[in-house]
Amino acid sequence: MPHANADQSEMGASDRFAALEAEMEAMRTAYREANELLASFVEQSHDLVQSVAPDGTFLFVNRAWRENLGYNAEEVATLHVLDVIDPEWHTVYQACFERILAGEDIVEQELVLRTKTGEHLYVDWNATQRRDGDRIIASQSYLRNTTRRR
Hints:
It contains four helices and five strands, in the order H-E-E-H-H-H-E-E-E. With 150 residues, it is an alpha+beta fold. A hairpin with a 5-residue loop joins strand 1 (48-52) and strand 2.
């Protein structure tokens, strides 16, 4: 009889393992779908979305950012954030960026960007930090184009 109990125990463990595997796969699917939904939401936004590293390089920009400023993805990879800030606004941007890196949020800060063709793009800038534990690794910004209001 001990042999039957061992088989039952093995089958029970096997069934539990299969149930855990199915649960993990369902969790992976839900995680992937949530990430796809978030990525689609950000990419399809009418607001400009950007993430900037502490050194001023772009980590991410969305479609609206590229379309409004006139750059393609390859060009964005070569830009520094100050390349797209109107020179008269560099001081304002740098002061705000330092505040972001110190842990402060920026809410509805007026800012003027410069497109690839040199046109002004007026925006309301909202920014927060992206963190890795206690360390700030980037700024995350939503910029609303207010040029038409001028």
